[in-house]
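Box S1 | Example of a co-folding query
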Amino acid sequence: MGQQTILYIEDDPASRRLVERVLQHSGYEIVTAETGLKGIDIARKLLPDLIITDIDLPDLRGQEIATALRADARFTHIPIVALTAMTYGEHREMAMAAGLDGYMIKPLNTAKLREQVKYYLEGGRDDIDPESLSAGQARFTREIVARLEQRIRQLEDANAALVRLDRMKENFIQITAHELRTPLTLVYGYVRLLEDFPSLKGLMQQDESVKGLIQGLVDAIERMHGVVNEILTTSRIMARQIELNISGFKLGELMERVIEEYMPDLEERDLTLKFDPTEWHADIRADRELIRLVVSNLLSNAMKYTPDGGEITIGVQEFKRRVTFFVRDTGIGIDPKQQLYIFDNFHTVADSSMHSSSKTAFEGGGLGLGLPICKGIIEVHGGEIRVESVGYDPENCPGSTFIVTLPLVALH
Ligand code: ADP
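Box S1 (continued) | Returned holo structure for adenosine-5'-diphosphate
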């Protein structure tokens, strides 16, 4: 017979080391876990010959570990025994009722531990009379429900704390962006004045490098303005502080407007845009400016993540009370795992050091706020947004499709 494996679940490092040493000396292979959950994971992976567990662990109790493992048929014949300092009879009863085969009480001397382990490995089991077993079962059920209740309360408290922290973070972002925007608007104004300043204008005409310097300054400030505004808009949308300015308009016309804005970049990047204005009939009631922002973000992303020469399709399906439109590209696609997160704030798939913050350059990158803004806007209108893509593959470019469904009349 090969070397037998024993899993020992114990949170106290000193006990862990001691038992490990003694049993290793006796020729067993020992694997240890310091929490119940880790122990369960290891047990399921390793299927050891014997599991020894402490009762009073920080997460699950020894009895609960036994119950969890016994639910799996692979553990029917694997002995699970407790090694604990909890000497009360009721703990032993509960342990046996929960599916443990034995109950060893600490401190154990080395010889006794070896003897006991051998006994369980050879199929030995502790005896318990039926009366104690049924008392143990009733107690175990009561205790498990009480612990469950306590854990749910703890989770609720932790969740409330997280919500509070999240709100603080939102406030911090909003205040910071706001505080930055005020001086930035001033700088922006001054730089515009500087551009038109007569003596400087003359200098700019005479000297190309002065012109380049001023232009560089204007571009950088404009970009910074854009970033701060993007953060501000997102945090307002996330905090649901957006007042919708509802009006009636034709969705198709709005699409055409946005496409026109991007036409020069589409041409420069040799991207074909497929859009048939005759398909679009929907008259919707929504916040036109915000919906424009959504379409603009989706189109800009489609361009950013599609290599030159690719194709972007914007299509629509109309139903009685809802309209669904999509932006499909032949770009690099999105990993299904990432698809869960791309609508989260500040989540970008690419390495953040690669960011260029261009709205249309291939893999231009950005703050990772475009999609959260879209989601926030669509949701305040009572609609939904989702993505479909078979995966990320920059070589073969499987493409991505973003699908937006909006009620014809915003539910706000
Ligand atoms: P960013 O400012 O980084 O573009 P977004 O919120 O708009 O932020 O998008 C989040 C991430 O989702 C992007 O960094 C990108 O990895 C991925 N993504 C968005 N749109 C597409 C698309 N059409 N094709 C492939 N990946 C996309």
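The radius of gyration is 32 Å. The pocket of adenosine-5'-diphosphate is lined by residues 297, 301-302, 305, 329, 331-332, 334, 342, 347-350, 365-371, 400 (CB under 6 Å).
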